[in-house]
Please model this.
Amino acid sequence: MAAQPNAKKLPFTLQPGEQVLAFVRRHWLYFSLKIAGVVLAGLGGTALGIAAVVMTFGFDGLPGVIAGAVIAAWAVYWAVRAYFTWYRYQNDIWVVTNQRLVDSLKRHWFHHQMASTDLVDVEDLRVERHGLLETVFDFGDVQCQTAGVVQNFVLSGIPQPARLLAVVDGARDAARRSLGPTDTVR
Model:
């Protein structure tokens, strides 16, 4: 799991007495594969465009200037895409505190989606891993079924999912114990 963040860097305010138990983002391999695809598309397309122009009419004259502008626009587009791939990876986080589970996602500067559920509302937890890469690199999904409005929290592609499940399970049990004995139905 990632290092504990400074409370000022969290996209939400901690409640009184609330402590961060786990701060998680997707496994580094998820990001690496995604950014590799973006970089290859950008560089590959740019290289092919340059080669095609050089082998045909060259960069001299109006057609060359237009082709150069199109190639430059292609490269800028993929550079921007690479930036937002990185930005989304950095801002797609899950935080487990001693009181709640928070799912926060920022796709770009003008988007923020956040959901939160109290730990006492977490009913069932399970870990899912599919495939060779997830098994070898120890990452997968932690699925939390809740009694709240958002019935399922899926922490997808996270490192060491079994360890996070244990953290959430322990925090949930502690949160329930702190509520004291509940009245039974008569």
